[in-house]
Structures
1.
Amino acid sequence: MARQKKPADAVQFTRESAERVARVVRAAELTPAAGSPLTFDKRFPERIPKQVRAATFTGAWPIGSTKVVTFKHEPTATVNAVNLSWPITLGGYVNENCLVGREGTNWWLVAPVLESRDAVFVSVTKSDEYVYKVEVDKDTINYLSDVAITATLNTADCTISVSTAKTVDTKDFVISVAAGKKTAIFIVDSYTSAFLRVRVP
């Protein structure tokens, strides 16, 4: 009974088999390559790494200005960050929290601390005229307001003396009235809503 071959046994070739294998290998080596291997270029450029960090700043930070900010969890680490959009004009901010972001080597202010407030917003308006000035032309007249009459009897010669006392008063009266008018926008309806704003120090 013939022994069965095991995977670890060496492969044996006859001379004819070895020559046949050699011819196939030689033909493959002499055949020119069909073409260069396929390559795939990057469709988009390498994305610049981005990073967002918590930080603090002090003082005013107007739009378009650069400020030194301190990383919140690294008190000795600071960077220069540019504010592109937040109107932080008051100078009372002290160690104010904010978020800054990095793109490449540049740092930018992402968001400061915001707070919510309620406000009345106008929803319907109306254009109308109103009186803004009234001019009055007047004149003054004098008139008799009272007359006092007294009589005295002289018993020696039976004569009567009569005397009068007149009271004159003054009054103003209107001659003409002229009013000026202007056009204004009046609020017809409104509603209450909340809005966000930069925290006031």
2.
Amino acid sequence: MTAPFTGGCACGKVRYKCTAEPQFAAHCHCRDCQKSSGAQMATLAAVPKGAFTIDGETKSYTTTGDSGKSIHRHFCPDCGARLFTLAMVMPDLYFVTAGSMDDASWLEPGMHIYLDSSQPWARVPSDAVTYGKAPG
């Protein structure tokens, strides 16, 4: 993985920069990621909160995760592009969407999570590290 990396929304009003490499990256198949991405999963990179800076205003949608703690999904209020998530079960990390990165070609997700809620047509490599829910 490589740092620093940058990204932002589709309209360019929100930009971000991360100066640290992700602690891990995953393909998340939870229903919240499916609905907010409009796809079978969302690919996310977990980065230290202190290494992540945002230029521009975001709005957030808050829901409750299976941990019982809140999840704040941030997006651009103008174009609606999903950018990052703050999950209070891991409050020191931002989960940055790979699709919002300027260049995500270097990202290597190490696992598929929440496969219990994956779509039956989702294809996961047979040698992938998988979890039915979140890893313990």
3.
Amino acid sequence: MVGSRTRSIAAGRAAFALAAAGLLLAACSGTSSSGSAASSAPPSSAPASSAPATPSSAAAVSTGSTAASSSTAGGAAAVATTSGALGVYLVDGQGRTLYMFDADTEEGKSACYGGCATAWPPLTTTGAPTASGSAAGDKLKTITRTDGSKQVVYGEYPLYYFDKDTAAGQTNGQAVGGTWWVVGSDGEPIKTAAGSGSAPASTG
């Protein structure tokens, strides 16, 4: 009876010791992870969107210049003829009477400058003068005035206007001072009568 009890106690102690040993073994064999895996996700930085810069104001560019080409006043002179009380004589393209000056005796030169040219403006041209009507084109030429302008010559005589002729066909300059005359289509001065303020009867 006593032996059976002793064996039972011994068996209990052995079981306890065995259980304690098992617990100790389990504790020693457990692995502790010292390095925790750091989840290093790449930074989710989206690339910067570089939209092209829009200028706040557009520069206006002018591609054309209005530079007008200005036409020279008068252009190429036209010499024509008209007929009236003085016969057939020279006029310009607008019918204004043309005169010669007796003082123009030196070929290729005008004797009318200063105040004279104010009262008797020269017929000038920027191109080759043209003839129409009974005027002869082969009698037309030019001379150079002191200011560089080209004055029209018909036959032997430089041609002029008279500032008192205010309309086409007037011949108020005829015989003024006994030195100013209208010019016939033959290139010679017409010295037969004084001028008139009336328009000629016809042109030709």
4.
Amino acid sequence: MDKPNKITPWIVLEFALVALWFTSDIRHWHYHLVPLSKTIDIVALAWISLRLRGLRWRDVGLCRPLSWPRTLAIGVCAGVAMEALELFVTQPLLQRITHKLPDLSELHDIVGNWKMLLLALALTWTLAAFGEEMAYRGYLLNRMADVVGRSRAGWAAALVAMSVVFGLAHYYQGATGMIENAIDGFILGALYLRFGRNLWIPILAHGITDTADVLIIFAGKYPGLH
């Protein structure tokens, strides 16, 4: 059983910077700026942290999988399953509890707009799927496990904590949106841990479910789109 790492000033600084970014109101929350404002900052911090510890991105899961066909199949199936779970199970249930749908009004410009659709899809696969998985699963989940210990219980605690943070990062979607994203974060983190801490499966699953969301929004059919 791995013991927790010693709490160093650098670890404290890392989490303090992440907390600062999440509580800062300096940036305005528009769709185009959400991934730019938070994800790039965290990925940059992650890169610095890895370099200072003598690690590379491949050490936290950005490495070639043993089988690309298997990875693609699992990632796509997981993404489709996540989208179905969200639309047909968790979202209706949360709507009954909170009496609100996720607030997606910031995405209204995508409806029927081909240029915005292409931009949204580009951001979906770069800053959302690729960037957020590097930031939240590759970096934050691993860093939290460093603090609490890389035992089974430690990874479980880190997974729950990271999922909460991922949900809170989507606060502009309201309570229902935050809970939905926390659930998604938990599933993506579980996929990451289940398949040997390789980032490609959650990247693919994330990209597929977000692509489905964007296409439904483009058609003007997504629940909660005002």
